C-alpha cells in the first residue's frame, strides 16, 4: 500500500513485547500487505531479540539493516527490517530498567520528530511503561500527550479513539477515578471532542457524513433525571449544539443497549462518558485487533491497544495482531489524508 513517506515506529520499552511484535509484523509484511515502516530503537537489542527462542515464529529469519535516514526505509523494507539505530543496549527481557526507559523515551522523541517534520507519513508507538519513563524525566500522562506536545497541540485537544473491525469508541474521560467523572463532563468538553472526532472520521477514515451515537453517564441515561441529571444538564444540550452545526449525533443513549450488533449498524462512532464504558465493549468485540488512534493532531499516530506485558516478553506467546492492525490503520489513514 503506497503512502508516500514510510511509517515510523518507536519500539517502546525494550523490556516489554513491543520490539518483538514489530519483528513479527515485519515477518508478516507480505502476508498482511503492510506498508513500509522503520523502527526507531536499538539495533543491538533488536538483533539479540530476533535470535532469542520463540521471538520469530516458526524459526523465521529476521534480517535487519541500520538506515541513516527514513528515505532509505522503502528500498530496504522488502529484504530487511529498517532500523534507525540509537545505540547499543544491554536490556534483559521482562525486567524494565532506567537505561531501557531512556532508550524508549529517545525512540519516541525521534519518531515523533520524524512525523512532525513530514519525513514520516505516520507514527506507530509501541507500548511504554509510564512509571519507568517518569523516573527518567517523562512528564506527560502518556504517549498521546507527548505526541500532542511535539505537534504543538494542547493535550485536551488530542482525542483518544479505540478502533477495531466491529466498533469505534471515544471516551470523554480516560484515566481518572469514576467518582471524578461527573465533575469533568462539561458541554464544551463533549461538543469539542465530538467535533474533533467527526473531522477525523471524514479526513482520515473516509466517512463523509459520520453518524455518532453518544452514551449517557447514568444507568438508563438517567431515566429523565431519576437516576442522575447529567444527561439533562450537560450531555443533551451539548448534542443539541452539534445538531445545529449539522452533525448527525444521537443521544444521550442508555449505555447497556448501544453495543449489540443491530445497534452498531446505526452509527460509525460511539462516544462514551468514561474509560470502561468505552473500552469494555471494544475489547469484548475486538480484543486482539483494537487500535489506539489519536485524533486532532496534524500527524497520524496509532498504537496497539495493549501494554508492555513484561511477563510475556521473549516467550513468543504475545500476538502481533494489534501491532499489525496499528500499522495497517496508520497507513490507511495516511493514504486518505494524502489524497
Q: Termini, distance in Å? A: 13 Å
Helix content: 25-40%
Average pLDDT figure = 94
Under CATH at level 1, the class of the largest domain stands as Alpha Beta
**CATH topology type of the largest domain:** Isopropylmalate Dehydrogenase
- What is the N-to-C succession of helices and strands? EHHEHEHEHEHHEEHHEHEHEHEEH
Quick tags:
339 residues, 12 strands, Isopropylmalate Dehydrogenase, elongated, 12-stranded mixed β-sheet, 2 domains, alpha/beta
Structure description:
With 339 residues, the chain is an alpha/beta fold. The chain folds into 2 domains: 7-152 and 297-338, 3-Layer(aba) Sandwich (Isopropylmalate Dehydrogenase); 159-283, Isopropylmalate Dehydrogenase (3-Layer(aba) Sandwich). 39% of the residues lie in helices and 16% in strands. The protein has a 12-stranded mixed beta sheet with strand order 3-4-2-1-5-12-11-6-7-10-8-9, sandwiched between helices. The radius of gyration is 20 Å and the shape is elongated. The chain starts with 6 loop residues before the first strand and ends with a helix.
Amino acid at each position: 500500500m503506497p503512502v508516500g513517506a514510510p511509517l515510523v515506529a518507536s519500539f517502546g520499552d525494550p523490556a516489554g513485547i513491543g520490539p518483538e511484535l514489530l519483528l513479527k509484523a515485519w515477518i508478516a509484511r507480505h502476508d498482511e500487505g503492510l506498508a513500509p515502516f522503520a523502527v526507531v530503537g536499538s539495533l543491538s537489542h533488536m538483533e539479540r531479540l530476533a535470535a532469542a527462542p520463540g521471538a520469530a515464529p516458526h524459526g523465521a529469519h529476521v534480517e535487519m539493516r541500520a538506515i541513516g535516514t527514513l528515505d532509505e526505509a522503502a528500498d530496504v523494507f522488502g529484504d530487511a527490517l529498517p532500523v534507525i539505530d540509537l545505540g547499543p543496549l544491554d536490556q534483559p527481557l521482562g525486567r524494565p530498567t532506567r537505561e531501557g526507559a531512556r532508550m524508549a523515551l529517545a525512540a519516541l522523541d525521534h519518531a515523533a520528530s520524524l512525523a512532525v517534520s513530514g519525513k514520516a507519513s505516520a507514527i506507530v508507538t509501541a507500548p511504554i511503561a509510564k512509571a519507568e519513563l517518569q523516573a527518567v524525566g517523562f512528564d506527560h500522562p502518556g504517549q498521546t500527550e507527548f505526541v500532542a506536545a511535539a505537534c504543538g497541540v494542547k493535550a485536551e485537544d488530542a482525542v483518544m479513539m479505540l478502533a477495531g473491525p466491529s466498533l469505534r469508541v471515544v471516551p470523554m474521560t480516560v484515566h481518572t477515578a469514576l467518582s471524578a467523572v461527573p465533575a469533568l463532563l462539561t458541554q464544551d468538553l463533549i461538543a469539542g471532542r465530538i467535533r474533533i472526532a467527526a473531522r477525523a472520521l471524514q479526513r482520515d477514515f473516509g466517512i463523509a457524513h459520520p453518524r455518532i451515537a453518544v452514551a449517557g453517564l447514568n444507568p438508563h441515561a438517567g431515566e429523565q433525571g431519576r437516576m442522575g441529571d447529567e444527561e439533562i444538564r450537560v450531555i443533551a444540550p451539548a448534542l443539541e449544539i452539534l445538531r445545529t452545526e449539522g452533525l448527525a449525533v444521537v443521544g444521550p443513549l442508555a449505555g447497556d443497549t448501544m453495543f449489540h450488533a443491530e445497534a452498531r449498524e446505526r452509527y460509525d462512532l460511539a462516544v462514551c462518558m468514561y474509560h470502561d464504558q468505552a473500552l469494555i465493549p471494544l475489547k469484548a468485540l475486538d480484543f486482539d485487533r483494537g487500535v489506539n488512534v489519536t485524533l486532532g493532531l496534524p500527524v497520524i499516530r496509532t498504537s496497539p491497544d495493549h501494554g508492555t506485558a513484561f511477563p510475556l516478553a521473549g516467550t513468543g506467546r504475545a500476538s502481533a495482531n494489534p501491532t499489525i492492525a496499528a500499522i495497517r490503520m496508520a497507513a490507511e489513514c495516511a493514504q486518505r489524508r494524502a489524497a
